[in-house]
Amino acid sequence: MPPDSPELDPIEAEEWLDAVENVVEHDGPERAGELLEGAVARAHGLGAEIQISGPTSYVNTIPADQEPELPGDPEMEKRVRSMVRWNAIATVLRANSESSELGGHIASYQSAAMLYEIGFNHFWHAPSADHDGDMIYIQGHSSPGIYARSFLEGRISEEQMLGFRQEVSRAPGLSSYPHPWLMPDYWQYPTVSMGLGPLMAIHQAYFSRYLNDRGLRNTEGRKVWAFLGDGETDEPETLGEIALAGREKLDNLIFVVNCNLQRLDGPVYGNGKIIQQLETVFRGAGWNVIKVVWGRRWDPLLAEDDGLLVQRMNEAVDGEYQVYKSRDGAYVRENFFGAYPELAERVADMSDEQIWNLNRGGHDARKVYAAYKAAAEHKGQPTVILAKTIKGYGMGEAGEGQNITHQQKKMNVEALRAFRDRFDLDISDEGVEQISFYRPDENTPEMKYLKARREKLGGYLPQRRRKTDSPLEIPGLDAFAGQLKGSGDREISTTMAFVRVLAALLRDKQLGDRVVPIVPDESRTFGMEGMFRQIGIYSHVGQLYEPEDAGSMMFYKESQEGQIMQQGINEAGAMSAWIAAATSYSNHDTQMIPFYAFYSMFGFQRVGDLIWAAGDSRARGFLLGGTAGRTTLNGEGLQHEDGHSHVLSQTVPNCLSYDPAYGYEVAVIIQDGLRRMVSEQEDVFYYLTIENENYRHPAMAEGAEEGILKGMHRVREVPEGEPTVRLLGSGPILRQALEAADLLAENHDVSTEVWSVTSYTELRREALSADREARLTGEASGTPWVTECLGSEPGAPVVAASDYMKALPDGIRAWVPGRFEVLGTDGFGRSDYRAELRDFFEVDHRHIVVAALHSLAETGAIDRSVVKEAIEKYKIDTDRPDPAGL
Ligand SMILES: Cc1ncc(C[n+]2csc(CCOP(=O)(O)OP(=O)(O)O)c2C)c(N)n1
Ligand SMILES: [Mg+2]
Description:
- The protein is α/β, with parallel strands linked by helices and 886 residues long.
- Strands 10-7-11-12-14-13 form a six-stranded parallel β-sheet, sandwiched between helices.
- The site of thiamine diphosphate has 17 residues, from loops.
């Protein structure tokens, strides 16, 4: 036994404990905490390695005697809650009555019903005259319960309820999960891709404070509540950003983790306790942690406990706790209390039913209310509520606490009858058999109560704003005159051109302060560091230190009014911040214009799921894939050199993608983006790739705008007559096409025209849509732009070269008349000089010339020997393997 073990001197140990008790009683828990911390610090000072992290006991954080009274009418709320429960089940069962093809979830909402209902009845403000509304991130597969409440509120009809998961045949139907794209007046936040909800919620809270600090919108009093599953905390996205929330002391943020101990396959942490684990993780990240483990029926047992009951609670693992609730009272008596005869003795007078009814915290209105109130009032930290519940609560033998419950979408009549009885529902046997939706008359006390509660909180939730009533005025194209007239003799990159466009926008009187530059620690990469001092980097606490470079022109300035959101090396976080800003028109009725500039490789590929969620969220803003292009970003090698983000970006239906070559193209695209997103309030967003190769940018030719926006415009015409060959280039590879055109003219007497293709994706989309129209109606109403440009009769062969995969230019093949050859950068990138890489991937001017000659040979215009000669002339190695596989 170590010399200082308490067992050595029980009297001394008792004195210490008595002293603690005294301080808690007389001076309060805060003072006790200070003293204990001081004591530990002193011990540390003496070199003692004492670790005091780790969870507290497996009991409620708020002691029973400190719980506030439950306001309102708890009995009435219970009846309403039971109706919501029933209708939630009916939603899923009715949708699956013909077959189980449509799917849906019953068990998750049944475990979370109390957690939602306490919020709806007592806490969550709807947007109204004196409150902009709380922002509630609802766990995706709990949506049937949310619909069920809206049904009782009279916001969703029975007809609509029957359209659950039938968004085509019963259009508009009810979405499986929260999807603003499909229910734009209702759902605000897409959450069902596990982990994204909590991550986006953190940044929503952060952004909300940004708006407030910058004086753009008063967001005080608005809270962000995020509901998540305990299984969902497996996702790195769920926990990965909690440190930011802690560090930034986001007390406008509340997480509610529904700890039903189960995920889809089985227990979340069967061999331990998920609540205990999450407690330490969140506390370590600086959060206020409120555990809601036990319901009030445990209170008398806990009040009398000498430590043994809590010891047993601490000992049992989640795997066991789950089994208890899938069995019965006798089982709990024997296996939980029976572990110690003394403990079994304490419940000897209780019936099995009473033991069975010992409830969990997350199913106890009083305990949940106490936690919510404490969370809502807590200052200086975000709060996480860890609520212990039962998965499939009330489903009985149909799934309660069973491993199969997540997937359960069937309940037989007996189970439904048992459910009705358990929740005291006034539904006839016939109603049960038919699984009728249940909505009592408007004038019943329950319905009146339900509505009165919501009226008090400003109206119904969820609800989503589609547009702002007063859109901002946007500048005309002349605001970017610097880009339209070209760079003269100066060599610049499209990244520099973009930064100048951004700088011009920041100067704009109407819009300037609505621009939100977002960077994941890459400002210097993109040449944006000049903005540090100019507009400042946002920090709620300002700058508590003098920066190292304080004396320089572009010093690192942090400020409470700072405009730049510096997210650190954190693409997922930055993307979430962008989503918050890009949906500010809806959530805050305040239009913002976010520009998120990132390494293009770490965009669609790395955080593609968040970008998909942005599309669903109807985000409006600009994404800038910086230092893009497989061969243009040359030194960084395989994991940096992006040659496929445009292939990925075309998969997002409301994302417009552009690969501009010149500053004036960047300006035209961004200005039109502002028109569409800010003035017209279209729910689209933009992806632009920008590069770091420096060259001269010409002035814009008159009338080029239309082509730039639709996807292609001619940058070189042939001196006279028809061209022999037509070249398509994009981004920096456009210059390779121009150089190829020179060589073709000089060395091969081939007259060549050159097009800058700003967007293969837009060209393809428009043409596909026209084809569809023709297929269905016999005729397309317009000619697609690609046909306008290239004609519909076979003419001069077309060669496209791109710094992206061949699939990108290949996307317009169906509408290119005659021969079409594509060059692209399929394969893994690698580092070398640009010229070497462009030779390797076969997209440089030499390869374009050869491709053009080859096309002419194939169409019989020239002899094959000309191609052979060119291959020799330009020293092209034909023995090399195809780079696509390398
Ligand atoms: C990224 C992602 N992976 C997997 C799924 C499929 N999925 C939906 S719900 C679920 C289990 C959820 O368990 P938990 O978070 O504990 O929620 P509960 O239903 O228990 O409240 C899974 C795996 C998903 N929706 N998203
Ligand atoms: Mg769970």
